[in-house]
Design brief:
By secondary structure, the protein is of the alpha/beta class. Among the domains are: 127 residues, no CATH class; 83 residues, no CATH class; 155 residues, Double Stranded RNA Binding Domain (2-Layer Sandwich), CATH 3.30.160; 165 residues, no CATH class; 127 residues, paz domain; 73 residues, no CATH class; 337 residues, Ribonuclease iii, N-terminal Endonuclease Domain, Chain A (Orthogonal Bundle), CATH 1.10.1520.10; 44 residues. It has a seven-stranded parallel beta sheet with strand order 3-4-2-5-6-1-7. A seven-stranded parallel beta sheet has the order 12-13-11-14-15-8-36, sandwiched between helices. Strands 34, 35, 42, 43, 44, 45 and 46 form a seven-stranded mixed beta sheet that branches. Helix 7 links the parallel strand 5 and strand 6. Helix 8 packs across helix 39, helix 35 crosses helix 43 and helix 55 packs across helix 59. It is elongated.
Length: 1970
């Protein structure tokens, strides 16, 4: 939101428009000559004038033209570019043709609407009859002053204009206030003549005139100063100086006296070495004469610093020596001064040895000494806090009191002092976050001074040179130090122009720049209250309100006078001009001339400001109108009201708070008319608020006796209406987005106690953030709890079916083992419990055999068991998990009664294909042998050992001779009949196996003929959720080489060989053991799926979304990773074959003779080449057969992988292809995209740009047509700046003053005007001398500046009464139907004068016109031209619009499945939404989160737009941001207990999984969490009492242990790692991510309606609620039903007469735009709204585009994100996020908007926006609308300091708003929007999808994840740009500059990347990951 003139809010008049808009309004209503010199302003007004005035004639049967006459080629080129690029009008450029013009010109002109020509061509066009003046509706003449020259073509052309009514004329001349070398009286005479010739009025409105009209009027004082009398010290100093000056002047340095030839030419460029020393001395003398000895002493000191810097920089010896001479002089002078001053104190030196002028400056500052002083420097902490609190309370009380009266004067806000603002601000922050201690510590180091708010000093002192500025700074600093009683309150700083060359002295330039920024920051934040500076402070820098401006040196120009005076922008400010007495006459004459020039400019400008007398007259009536009081009057309550005096300020403040961009100033539009009311002449004002205000109707105030009163009463009526419509609160302040509360506000869900405590904590880990983690108890599915089988109770047996779907591929079967499909084994496992398990989807696990599909099948419907049987099963379960899988931990106990999950695992046996029973035989065997232990078998018992094959074929064996405490288990992989104990032992140490066992274990093998066993370890890895040799992207990981495989398979050294005789056979057969090891992951996955099913079932029960009970014949689809092992195997084989083919092809190419024929390479066939071609064709056929096969690059490498990826795998793409990076980067389709804002949400300011020539680029300089470049100031600093290419040199056009007055003819009135001007100046001089504003040198003055304002208030005002009673009850306006716009009297006694009546007051008509009515003739033309639209519609409809069916996608966005019989989302999809990426599973929530996040934004946006149709975009955006915030989603997720259901960590069966019927003391875990005890805190000795420890005892144990009270026994024990088994830790943000992912899951499965119903169930308002009351058990039960969103009403406003006709008038020319879109609007008001900027006041029939942009942004975001999600390439989450960022951002939208001509139909009246759009359009046009990622990079030598301009946000906004318009116009059809926009964005979508772009910020953070840290933004001196520094630890700090934080951050990242890569500091891993 742009506020005019800094932070001012005008109080006495409505906020003025930009001067360019004022000129535009004036030019539309009458013929004018505008005094403007800026080419951008000329272009803006001319272009808008052509567009607005062409409306009546574009559909007229008679052709009319706009004729643009420009003589300057540069200017004409700029105008041509603007008309061509920014409008849809046809242009004929006649300047490219030479004279005389031929007849073909007629044909060219007939096809055009705008003609541009030079003076002679224009004259020839008219004189030769090519066109007549009647054919011209608009004549624009640049440099129109030439028409005053007789016989000039322009003079002759103007003779063809008979009357000014026939054509609108707009002339342009150079600004008058810049013509300082001519007599203004002569200018006045010439202007009068020019008006007569041109039939125009001179209009002087400009930026300077705006300052004169609208800025505060400070009290001006002229301070006379005596010259300084010389004393003996002067003589001493001058004597010392004179010799040095003589020496320097006599110094000869003429290279021609010594050198000649080439050397002489080189030396001629060397500057005179005496020049700089003489300048230093002369500056010193000037200070000595004008400021006195004390200042001269400081000048000598400053000169020494300057000399030392020059000595370091100069490369020449002679220069160095002469500088040394001057340095010695200054040292001598310093010595003289010090000796002379030594007899005085520091204070006496200042007052005794300064000039009268300096003393007068001290006197002026002395007047501003505050009356009170509060010193907090020595206060203790408690007193500081108490003082701060007291200050805060007093501030709050004052604020509360001030709220009773609508405060409009910024200077009368709450107490504000040098440091008081920080105290108050930090206290507010401390109260919000309850962090007072942090605030106190942060500001203890500041100077704690406090001044009364009415005595604040904010001053600027203007001087002529840097030296004087530094001396005055020394002076004020010493006064503060040595005269603290009078000047304790001073806090001075100084700043001047930068002197260092950024190219030659980058470091010095940067230091100076940082100093300037620091000084301005301190001044803006009130750390400094006196700023001393040179002319650098006059323009381009925003200041706070200043109440004291001093011109220490007189202004040299009128502009300098005005700009410095304008800095005094406080209402009670003073402006002091100091001059020396000898210069009095010259100074006062110049000042008198400035006054007269000011009058001349104001006399000829439109929209004059009310005079002081008019305001005072109107003030007399203020009390006669009752104020508006929004609350009932209560004597005990303070009353808030608005009255006539402050109503205008209230409206201005309201308009300033409306949402807008940085270019636009939103202002109220008003028009004052004279009327006859009750037989007396009165005034009424029609007021209309900006078009984006929710109040759309015209406001008409009550008739009033003065114009000022009519505006005030209209403003008061507007305040009343705004309050009643909810736009102003009860304090009559604009309701901002923060205070705008709706029913569904996110605050409805309150934080719980823990969250509230955390929110109040000073740490950054606030609720909803990623830094805050909480422990959640892991939830167990309800069907698996309280389900312990009991005797004689119905039980359910579920068989765990396992079937091999894809065997382990050969390359991963390194030992070549036999594959054992689990389905071939009849034995298995089942789940026995008392509850039914809901249907769950099959899921894969990845065992040694390969991919196995696991499913659950109900075996028996009725099953009853006895106590004994259940005991056996319980024993088996304990044995399986404790003995076989060894999952029991020290603190884990088997408890089948109290365990969290109490279902039983039983062994099963398949008796038939359809029947599975409990294997009781195996159970009995386990129960009978459960206590068997591994025993050593003596030789005697082994004598009769006989090998039996059937015992070992499917066995698990345990060598009993080793590891008896922890036996090892081995599968028997193979019985080696070729080996026996007497076989040769591998290796040389032992001869045979028999010898090995005898020597190592002292065991003698009894049976030497038995075969040996080749065995494999049983699996210690129990996590089979993901494959071992395949990553989660579905890419096969590299395995060992073929040689290694061969060795493992054939060499005995690589095998484990056991002797059967020495092994014990385990009770579990190998086939069952292989299934047993899979039990943990199966049960874990089953529980997760059941939790997901519970969520689905709960949603189904509560809102009927999905079937509660799944049909018996229904089967869920299997859990999908996005790939299968068979896909991986097939893909790996194809890659291997293609790699072999590539290698063979390369060999063939080497052996083949290559012949070039017709620029083609032909290869002679070799004998083996046809075979290779056959192989290639065969591979192609295989690819075509398999639809799932991926695209292959030319070298056989995959361009993408399959599967669901996570962000942490984004760098693994090269694992299968080391050459991928090269191929990826060199592919022809490689396009990397980005803007500083490309990678973040788009939602701010613009600056200017510069560029380099394309041919000058180097390795650091390359093209980027996106409109920005990075300019590297040095190795560590980069700036994002705009570029100027070859055509952009137009931006550098500086219009020179081509008005050569001396050559013009002067009329007889010239001398008269000159004489009048001189007389006026003489009168001004007299007035100045007699005004009493001159403070003469001999007079002492007492200003008392702080009493001026209060005294004004106390001045008595004579009150007058109005004949009407106006109050809150009666209102302050008059209904619109009571006012007639004709001259006839009405029944109410009102008559309105005619618009063209002589009684009208044109100067008071600051009107809002509709932009096309400028005279009666054109009104008639308009009425005849705006015919019925029937013919238009028929013509349009006859041309069928056929969409190009480029989108062959079958996916439909609007498709909605029937939810009545829909089962809902699959548990597998919901499980994906519940699984975090750090779970390292094959699935995670990231892809679903991306689509869910996008849909969440869309759904909330659509609901807000449709529900609140009269709320502006700023408030809606704020509400949406709260609804989609992580904090809100976290609260929703926590409320629905999602944290307990999530999968938050990697599955580790030994560490974080609890088997069924086992339990641990989870109460202890909870207590440990609460007490924050370390994971490794507990010792083994503590485990015996774990079950007895209570929560309150934990703290005591912790305390004693931490205090070191431990006995010796404890210290001798080892620590035991303690893992949380029943709890997991989840960041708050992950809960929010889970909510978004679940929304995405329901969206994918149930469509848009299903997702919205689910969101409503969560508590997010996206659907209207329908309440039904139902009688149930004599109670009223409210049932909630969710309805459907209705389309909002048409945006066409009915508050204007005949809105349809006005709409058609504004929509002229848009039919072509609809053809470009390939979409015909049913309601064209949507299109008009979409293309209307908030500044475009002529549109009074629709709102601006902001609300539609708010909607369209969300629609496009969802459409693009969903399209990317549905892409067959299955983009990884990281790629999906990057693609979404690259395709949904302002930069690409703006570029595409230009490519498709959106900007040509964009309606706005913002000069700044027009300039930026024109610049960006030219860049895009010149680069063929290409979009790249990189910025322009240029070398340091090519740099120059320029401002940066971001891609115009408004262009991206209208791109989005049109999408919103199509969405609403099509009945909320997403497919209709996508059909239009996919055609527009198809190329970019495909390019980016093929080569995913990456943000520079993300690239840097991936490269340096731990060491790269971005700093906080620092504001630069101009107040508009910021700098961001990124520190890369150990490698440097890199800086980026941009117009906002996002640009600067991206620029800093780019600078860091460039330098790190250039210096080779990028890690190998990072380079590989690229």
């Amino acid at each position: 939101m742009a506020l005019p003139f800094g932070d001012n809010v005008h109080t006495k008049f409505f906020t003025p428009k930009e001067y360019q808009v004022e000129l535009l309004e004036a030019s539309k209503n009458r013929n004018i000559i505008a005094c403007i010199g800026n080419i951008a302003t000329k272009t803006f007004i001319s272009l808008k004038l052509i567009q607005e005035l062409s409306v009546p004639f574009r559909r007229s049967r008679k052709k009319k033209y706009a004729l643009f006459i420009a003589e300057s080629i540069q200017n004409a080129t700029h105008y041509i570019s603007a008309i061509k690029h920014l409008t849809d009008l046809n242009l004929s450029n006649l300047m490219q043709y030479s004279l005389p013009l031929n007849k073909f010109v007629t044909e060219i002109i007939s096809q055009s609407q705008v003609i541009i020509a030079n003076n002679l061509q224009a004259l020839e066009l008219v004189s030769n009859g090519y066109i007549s003046m009647n054919d011209i509706y608009l004549l624009i003449i640049d440099d129109c002053h030439y028409c005053m020259i007789k016989n000039h073509p322009l003079n002759k052309l103007m003779q063809y204009i008979d009357s000014k009514e026939n054509v609108r004329i707009f002339g342009m001349i150079y600004p008058l206030y810049t013509i300082s070398d001519l007599n203004p009286g002569k200018i006045e005479a010439d202007l009068n003549e020019l008006q007569e010739i041109m039939h125009c009025e001179i209009e002087t409105t400009s930026d300077v005139v705006s300052i004169l009209k609208y800025n505060c009027k400070p009290t001006e004082y002229l301070v006379e100063c005596n010259i300084r009398n010389k004393d003996e010290l002067d003589d001493i100093i001058r004597a010392e100086i004179s010799d040095t000056i003589t020496f320097l002047k006599e110094h000869r340095y003429d290279p021609s006296e010594i050198y000649e030839g080439e050397l002489l030419e080189e030396l001629k460029s060397v500057p005179d070495p005496a020049k700089e020393p003489l300048n230093i001395i002369n500056n010193f003398i000037d200070v000595l004469d004008s400021m006195g000895g004390w200042c001269a002493n400081k000048a000598a000191l400053s000169s020494l610093f300057i000399i030392e810097k020059l000595k370091l920089k100069t490369p020449y010896e002679r220069h160095f020596l002469l500088l040394c001479v001057v340095s010695s002089l200054m040292l001598r002078i310093r010595t003289i001064f010090e000796n002379y001053f030594s007899q005085y104190t520091e204070k006496e030196q200042v007052y005794k040895y300064v000039s009268p002028k300096v003393k007068r400056l001290i006197d002026i500052l002395q007047q501003y000494k505050p009356s009170k002083r509060l010193d907090l420097e020595n206060a203790n902490n408690e007193s500081i806090i108490s003082i701060c609190n007291e200050k805060l309370n007093s501030c709050n009380n004052r604020e509360k009191n001030n709220e009773n009266f609508v405060n409009t004067e910024n200077e009368s806000q709450t107490s504000f002092t040098i440091c008081d603002s920080y105290i108050r601000y930090k206290n507010d922050k401390a109260n919000r976050w309850k962090n007072k201690k942090k605030y106190q510590n942060k500001h203890d180091h500041k100077t704690k001074l406090s001044i009364e708010e009415s005595e604040i000093v904010c001053s600027v002192i203007f001087v002529k040179s840097r030296l004087i500025a530094s001396i005055i700074h020394y002076l004020l600093s010493d006064l503060k130090r040595y005269d603290a009683d009078n000047f304790w309150w001073l806090s001075p700083q100084f700043t001047t122009e930068k002197t260092a060359d950024p190219n030659k002295e980058p470091r010095d330039a940067e230091i100076q720049h940082r100093n300037l920024e620091d000084v301005l920051r301190k001044f803006r934040t009130r750390e400094c209250n006196i700023l001393i500076g040179t002319s650098i402070l006059e323009q381009g820098i925003d200041f706070p309100k200043c109440n004291l401006i001093v011109r220490f040196d007189p202004p040299l120009t009128f502009c300098s006078y005005i700009y410095s005076k304008s800095k005094a922008n406080s209402s009670n400010s003073n402006f002091f001009l100091m001059y020396e007495k000898p210069n009095k006459e010259e100074f006062i004459n110049n000042l008198a001339k400035y006054y007269e020039i000011e009058k001349l400019l104001l006399k000829r400008c439109c929209n004059k400001v009310d005079s002081d007398s008019e305001l005072m007259e109107s003030d007399q009536y203020n009390e006669s109108v009752m104020p508006y009081v929004p609350t009932p009057v209560d004597e005990e309550v303070d009353i808030t009201y608005v009255n006539m005096d402050n109503a205008i300020a209230c409206i201005n403040k309201y308009c300033a708070k409306l949402p807008s961009d940085s270019f636009t100033r939103l202002t109220p539009m008003w028009k004052t008319k004279k009327i006859i009311f009750q037989n007396q002449q009165l005034y009424i004002t029609n007021l209309r608020l900006p078009i984006n205000s929710p109040y759309k109707k015209q406001i008409i105030g009550h008739p009033m006796p003065t114009e000022v009163l009519s505006r005030r009463i209209a403003a008061l009526e507007a305040c009343r209406l705004l309050h009643q419509t909810g736009e102003l609160d009860y304090n009559l302040q604009p309701i901002g987005k923060e205070s705008f509360h709706l029913l569904f506000s996110s605050e409805d869900i309150l934080l719980d106690e823990a969250d509230q405590l955390q929110a109040a904590d000073e740490s950054d880990a606030r609720p909803g953030t990623n830094k805050r983690r909480q422990y959640y108890k892991k939830k167990i599915a309800s069907c698996l709890t309280d389900c312990r089988p009991l005797p004689s109770k119905l039980l359910y047996l579920y068989s765990i079916r396992m079937a091999l779907s894809c065997p382990l591929p050969e390359e991963q079967n390194t030992r070549g083992r036999k594959i054992h499909p689990p389905e071939e084994s009849p034995t298995g496992f089942g789940i026995l419990l008392t509850k039914k398990i809901p249907k769950v989807c099959p899921f894969p696990i990845f065992t040694r055999c390969g991919e196995v599909i696991v499913s659950l099948e109900l075996c028996l419907q009725e099953l009853y068991l006895t106590e004994e049987q259940l005991e056996k099963i319980s024993t088996f379960l304990n044995y399986t998990f404790a003995k076989v899988l060894r999952l029991n931990k020290y603190f884990m106990t088997f408890d089948s009664v109290n365990a969290p999950c109490t279902y039983f695992i039983v062994p099963t046996i398949n008796v038939s294909d359809n029947e599975t029973l409990i294997d009781w035989n195996f159970l009995n065997e386990i129960n009978s042998r459960k206590k068997e232990e591994l025993l050593i078998i003596p030789d005697e018992k082994r004598k009769d050992f006989q090998f039996r094959k059937e015992l070992y074929t499917d066995a698990v064996v345990m060598p009993w001779y080793r590891n008896q405490d922890f036996p090892q288990h081995f599968y028997v992989a193979e019985i080696c009949y070729n080996l026996s104990p007497r076989s040769k032992f591998p290796g040389e140490e032992y001869k045979t196996f028999e010898e090995y066992y005898y020597r190592k274990y002292q065991l003698k093998i009894q049976n030497t003929e038995q075969p040996l066993l080749d065995v494999d370890h049983t699996s210690a890895r129990l996590n089979f959720l993901t494959p071992r040799y395949v990553n989660r992207k579905g890419v096969a990981l590299p395995t060992c080489s073929e040689a290694t495989k061969k060795e493992k398979r054939e060499s005995l050294e690589q095998k484990q060989i056991l002797v059967p005789e020495l092994c014990q056979i385990h009770l579990f057969p190998a086939s069952l053991w292989r299934k047993a090891v899979a039990l943990p992951c199966i049960l874990y996955r089953l529980n997760c799926l059941l939790l997901a099913e519970e969520i689905r079932s709960k949603v189904s029960n509560e809102i009927n979304l999905g079937l509660n009970t799944v049909p018996s014949d229904f089967k869920w689809p299997r859990l999908d990773f996005g790939w299968t092992l068979s896909d991986v195997v097939k893909r790996t084989r194809e890659l291997r074959e293609l790699r072999i083919f590539k290698e063979n092809t390369e060999i063939c190419l080497k052996l083949t003779e290559i012949i070039e024929v017709d620029e083609r390479i032909t290869i002679k066939k070799q004998n083996n080449f046809p075979k290779l071609l056959e192989l290639k064709n065969e591979n192609k056929n295989n690819e075509e057969k398999d639809s799932n096969v991926f695209e292959i690059s030319s070298d056989g490498e995959p361009l993408m992988e399959i599967g669901t990826w996570s962000n942490d795998m984004a760098n693994d793409i090269q694992t299968f292809s080391p050459e991928f990076e090269t191929n990826f980067a060199s592919s022809s389709g490689m396009v990397r995209y980005g803007s500083p804002t490309s990678w973040l949400s788009h939602n701010e300011d613009d600056l200017d740009m510069d560029s380099i020539n394309e041919s000058e680029t180097s390795e650091d300089s390359f093209e980027n047509p996106s409109g920005l470049r990075i300019e590297f100031k040095n190795e560590f600093l980069a700036e994002a700046v705009d570029r100027i290419d070859d055509c952009s040199e137009l931006d550098c056009i500086k219009t020179e003053n081509t008005w050569q007055w001396e050559n013009l003819n002067t009329n007889e009135n010239a001398n008269y005007e000159i004489k009048c001007f001189e007389n006026a100046v003489t009168d001004n001089v007299k007035n100045i001398l007699t005004s009493g504003r001159i403070i003469y040198e001999e007079n002492y003055f007492s200003l008392k500046p702080f009493e001026i304002y209060s005294s004004k208030i106390k001045m008595p005002i004579q009150c007058k009464k109005l004949p009407w009673h106006l109050s809150s009850e009666t209102g302050y306006g008059m209904p619109q139907n009571e006012i007639l716009t004709n001259k006839n009297s009405t029944d109410s006694g009102i008559s309105v004068s005619e618009p063209n009546s002589n009684d009208a007051s044109p100067q008071t008509s600051n009107s809002y016109s509709n932009g096309n009515i400028f005279n009666e003739n054109l009104c008639e033309t308009l009425s005849t031209c705006c015919l019925s639209d029937t013919s238009y519609k028929s013509n349009f409809q006859t041309q069928e619009i056929n969409f190009e069916e480029e989108n062959d996608e079958t996916f439909k966005f609007d498709y909605q499945p029937n939810l009545s019989d829909h089962v809902g989302p699959s548990p597998s999809v919901l499980l994906q939404a519940l699984t975090m990426s750090n779970a390292n599973d094959g699935i995670n929530l990231e892809r679903l989160e991306t689509i869910g996040d996008s849909f969440l934004k869309y759904a909330i946006t659509n609901y807000l737009y449709c529900t609140y149709d009269n709320v502006h975009e700023g408030k809606l955006s704020h509400i949406r941001s709260k609804q989609v915030s992580n904090l809100h989603l976290y609260k929703l997720g926590k409320k629905k207990v999602f944290g307990e259901c999530m999968v938050a960590c990697k599955f580790e069966p030994h560490d974080n999984w609890l088997p069924p019927c086992f339990r641990i003391p989870f109460e202890l875990e909870k207590a440990l969490i609460n007490q924050k005890v370390s994971s490794c805190f507990w010792k083994v000795s503590d485990l015996s009492v774990l079950w007895k420890v209570k929560s309150h005892e934990i703290s005591f144990v912790k305390k004693t242990k931490l205090e070191g009270v431990e006995n010796e026994e404890e210290n001798t024990l080892m620590y035991l790692p303690f893992h949380l088994v029943t709890y997991h830790s989840i960041p708050d943000k992950s809960i929010a991510d889970c909510v978004e992912a679940l929304i995405g899951a329901y969206l994918i499965a149930c469509g848009i309606r299903g997702a919205m119903l689910f969101m409503s169930w969560l508590g997010i308002k996206v659907l209207p609620v329908i309440h039904h009351s139902k009688k149930l058990n004599e109670d009223d039960v409210i049932e909630i039903e969710y309805g459907y969103l209705n389309s909002p009403p048409s945006p066409l406003l009915r508050s204007v007469p005949n809105p349809e006709a006005e709409l058609e008038k504004l929509m002229v020319g848009y039919d072509e735009f609809e053809r470009l879109l390939n979409y015909r609007f049913n309601d064209r008001s949507y299109l008009l709204q979409a293309m209307t900027h908030a500044s475009y006041s002529p549109n009074c029939v629709t709102d601006c585009y902001q609300r539609l942009e708010f909607l369209g942004d969300a629609v496009l975001d969802y459409l693009i994100t969903r399209h990317l999600y549905e892409d067959k390439r299955q983009h990884s989450p990281g790629a999906l996020t990057d693609l979404r960022s690259a395709l949904v951002n302002n930069t690409i939208f703006a570029a595409l908007a230009i490519r498709f001509g959106f900007h040509k139909y964009f309606r706005h009246q913002s000069p700044g926006l027009a300039d930026v759009i024109h610049r960006f359009v030219r860049i895009q046009e010149d680069n063929n609308h290409t979009i790249f990622e990189e910025y322009y990079l240029i070398n340091e030598e090519e740099c120059e300091e320029v401002e940066d301009v971001e891609v115009p946000k408004a262009l991206g906004d209208i791109f989005e708003s049109v999408a919103g318009a199509i969405f609403l116009d099509s009945g909320m059809s997403l497919d209709a929007v996508w059909k239009v926009y996919y055609r527009i964005m198809k190329n970019e979508i495909e390019q980016f999808s093929t080569n995913v772009p990456k943000s520079p910020i993300r690239e840097l953070l991936e490269m340096e994840p731990e060491t790269a840290k971005f700093g906080r933004p620092e504001k630069l001196a101009d107040g508009r740009r910021v700098r961001v520094t990124v520190d890369v630890f150990g490698k440097g700090a890199f800086k980026g500059i941009g117009r906002n934080y996002r640009i600067a951050k991206c620029t800093a990242a780019k600078c860091a990347l460039k330098q790190l890569k250039k210096r080779g500091l990028v890690s190998k891993k990072s380079m590989t990951n690229e």
